[in-house]
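Quick note —
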Amino acid sequence: AELKHGRVAMMAIIGFLGQPSWRFPGFEGVPDGVGALTEAPGSTGFACLFLLVGFFELRILADLEEGNEPGNFGDPFKMIKTQSGGYDERWRNLELNNGRLAMVGAIGTITANWYTGLDAYQQWQAAKPATIAFIKTTLWFAP
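Predicted structure written out below.
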C-alpha cells in the first residue's frame, strides 16, 4: 500500500506544479488546489476521477500484481536495465524513498494551499523572505 500511495503522491506533486499553467478543457475557470472541490465543474470532475481510479484499482490492476507484493507491477515496459532484467530490490527501495518524500510534500502542499489559497509556486515565493530572514538570524556566518 505504501508503494501505491507514494506513486499517487508523486503524481500529485507533478499536478501541483502543472496546475497553474495547464488545465483540462472545460476546467479553465476552476480555482487551484483544494478550492477546486468547492466549485461545480471541479467537484464533478473529481468525483468522476475517483470512480474511474477505483474501477482500475479494483478490476484491472489487481490482476497485474498477482503473485507480487501490493503495488508491485514490476517493470512492464522493461525500461530499467539491471542485472535481474528489470525492477529489483534496489529500484523498489528508491521508489519507496521517493514516494515517502512525495507524500510529505503533497500533504504539506495541500495543507498550505487550503490555509493560504496559494498554489505551489506562490507558496515558495511567499516563503522566500521568511526563510532568508531565518537563516540570517540563525547562522552567524550568513551574509
